Amino acid sequence: MKKVLLAGGCGFIGSHLADRLCRRNDIDRLVIVDNLWTGRLENLAAISDARVEFVRSDVETFTSDTKFDEIYHLASPASPPWYMTQPLRTISANVVGALNLLNLLKPGGVIGYTSTSEVYGDPVITPQPETYRGSVDCTGPRSSYDESKRCVEAMLFEAHRVHGTRVKVVRLFNVYGPRTRPDDGRAVSNFITQALQGKPITIYGDGSQTRSWGHIDDIVEALERYFWRDGTDFPGPLNVGNDREISVIEVAEFIQSHFPKSPIVFLPPVAQDPTNRRPDLTLCNQILPGWVCAIPYEEGVMLSTEWFRKEVLVPA
């Protein structure tokens, strides 16, 4: 029986991964660590499992007498308004957190890390393959997140090369869906919460920037398959996301079509907001054959809207 540590397990993606881990019958202890900076305890409300232990702690300072068979590091904010406000804390959660977690890994165990498409910066090629080194700015306003993710990737792959540590690094593209914080600050959640509250839908810039939005149900299915279910030892990096590229203004207009009282307004662009995002999924199709982002964004947005309506905002 395995002992598993999930760092950031109260977060948007982390809590969905916790749900999937609880389905396993080969785990006798699941420790979920979260400092509740951006995570919310309510995200674990559906879990009632005697094997699960929640510890409120920074990932950098968490200690345990247990060495874990599997460790999953999701302890970092992913939204610019959050990580730009506390950049040093963001870097620490990623980098110092990863160093601490490596010390808690059982010999022969595996550490999984959710990296990000942000490591590609503002890409000049599209779609972006894992071999693309990116067009990045290591001193820019997004660097606390982008560069700390890149640093952890470097750390894990060096541990893999030099020490034989088993690692699995996934680069997630834009993920949305239920359990996103209403004040998350990213496009889909912003648009939905603004529309539900009857406020204007705000777009930063002209809305021509594109993203590849993947619904959380599809993304967590890929994480489950890659991290443990399919039995692959491929260390990564592995792109996971939706390869359907959609402009920000298209999403805003789609949401506004269901909330016509909310006008779309344009605000000054955010500094160094990437112009495009689209994963090259060639490698993903090899490692996770048959996996696709099956939920179209139109359906996913409506599912997310209903969740926000019922769980976060006063019911209409």
TrEMBL record:
Domain called NAD-dependent epimerase/dehydratase: residue spans: 4-226
Protein origin, superkingdom: Bacteria
Required co-factors: NAD(+)
Species whose genome carries this gene: Devosia neptuniae
Alphabetically ordered keywords of this record: Decarboxylase, Lyase, NAD
Gene3D superfamilies: NAD(P)-binding Rossmann-like Domain
UniProt keyword Signal present: no
Name of the molecule in the record: NAD-dependent epimerase/dehydratase family protein
